[in-house]
Amino acid sequence: MSASHQADLVIVANRLPVDRVVNPDGSVDWRRSPGGLVTAIEPVMRANDGAWIGWAGGTDTDLEPFVEDGLSLIPVALSEKEIEEFYEGFSNGTLWPLYHDVVAKPEFHREWWDSYVTVNRRFAEQAAETAADNAAVWVHDYQMQLVPAMLREMRPDLRIGFFLHIPFPPAELFQQLPWRRQLLEGLLGADVVGFQRPGAAQNFVRLVRQRVGHKTHRDMVYLPDGRSVHAAAFPISIDVQGLEELARSQPVQERAAEIREQLGNPQHVLLGVDRLDYTKGIHARLRGYSELLAEGKISVEDAVFVQVATPSRERVDQYRRLRDDIDRLVGRINGDLGRIGRPAISYLHSSYPREEMAALYQAADIMVVTPLRDGMNLVAKEYVACRYDYDGALVLSEFAGAADELRQAYLINPYDINGMKASILEAMKASPKDRAKRMKAMRKTISEHDVKDWASGFLKVLSETKPLHHKQLRPARRT
Ligand code: ADQ
Questions:
Q1: Measured in angstroms, how far is the CA atom of residue 79 from the centroid of ligand 1?
Q2: Would you state the pLDDT for residue 473?
């Protein structure tokens, strides 16, 4: 199989599902990047002889399409300036904060936008070249919102799907964006636009009606050329069974016991696992926990908070500042409240293999997930998947997409620090029977919808979209 063959299924995402590693002898290898997306999409990619288009993460301009572990991968090059303007700038300095309730201030720069358009066109051109006749192209996430319309213009024969992994904001916030109409029109190039939550799909349909003036009815948008666009929620999931099997394995169980031992076998182990991102609510969470200690409601003798915070997007100012803020806060809390051999917070910047993550989830009595806004939050679902023993409690922000499904978690408003503290205490004191009841219900929910169902569900809806010549089947328009 050649990597640049004409594919029946093309995935377009900002990043390829592999990371480039340079060996000590200078040779180059590719390592599968951890993460749910590739697990989800791999089976359908293999079944359809698919290809994946994405950036390899560096500034190499000479990477050729290649096949890695049977997956056909097509690198798209970004220059240093494009990494600054398209990726760090418009994607992560404009869209990311705007789409997360403006929890940080989005910056609007015209040169960032120009770079976003240029890079989106490059991805669209590569997809147009790669897709076979009448193929399906599935475009992912906020970095690629112009690709659907650009691609449709080049290749009207294709079925095009788009999935947004992050929230889609309400009209009141979205309309700050100077390029709001262009982005909406970009997305409308798709036949199916998928979101994590139904509210996000509604936000999109409402904006299309108000800002672009197209007719809409429920989750459908009707375009003047006779095409229709289906906007709906497809909540993403995880490899539930794979993770549970890992958690049940002997080495992971032994490692979980070892982690507790190394923490000094406290009565309560609390855990937070996040990318170091200002949307994740790490600051308020740790502050709330430190107040519980300072007020004597809990003690470092019998509780420890393990916070794993993986640095990310470190070249963006706001992220550097956040890392410094959290580092300082943890230092202050441990300095004020810790004792010798008993830190209040065990703080880790490392990135771990899946086995270690499963062991951490197994070791934690309470998982604390408190984002100010989150598209889904896979960590919450991963914790539940690992708790086959029906033990453990989940404290979860109602502003994470996962809160729609994990209703039996201790749901909190992450802005209400007193409420969060009360819920953490409640979870710590809950009876084993109550914990088991909640965990059982949450496990039932996630086991009924895993990541493969998510991918095949989206692609099924995409495959059912009607080509243009079937336009007489459109539902009657509403006035
Ligand atoms: P993220 O914002 O990255 O994802 P999340 O959904 O929690 O957030 O996924 C993080 C993933 O990274 C999890 O699978 C977790 O296990 C892993 N991870 C975190 N820290 C790690 C560490 N130190 N070592 C190893 N692995 C680690 C975006 C959106 C989310 C949405 C997902 C998927 O912001 O809202 O749920 O995409 O659509």
A1: 26
A2: 28
Integer Cα distance of 397 and 415 in angstroms = 9
Would you say 319 and 277 are in contact if contact means Cβ atoms under 8 Å apart?
yes
Q: Which stretches within 140-237 are classed as H helix?
A: 147-154, 171-174, 180-187, 198-207
Residues of the chain with pLDDT under 50: 1, 468-479
Q: What CA–CA distance (Å, rounded) separates 164 from 193?
A: 8
Contacts (Cβ under 8 Å, ≥6 apart) of 325: 283
- Scan for tokens 């809409």, then name that residue: 216
Helix (H, G, I), strand (E, B) or coil at 101: coil
Q: Is 167 in the pocket of ligand 1 (CB under 6 A)?
A: no
Its sign, for the CA torsion 368, 407, 457, 182, is negative
Ligand 1 closest atom vs CA 277: 2
Q: Answer whether 166 contacts ligand 1 (Cβ < 6 A).
A: yes
Q: Are 129 and 156 in contact (CB under 8 A)?
A: no
pLDDT at 474: 30
* pLDDT given at position 62: 80
Place of tokens 């404009």: 94
CA–CA dist 63, 76 (Å, integer)? 8
Element (H, E) at 122: helix 110-130
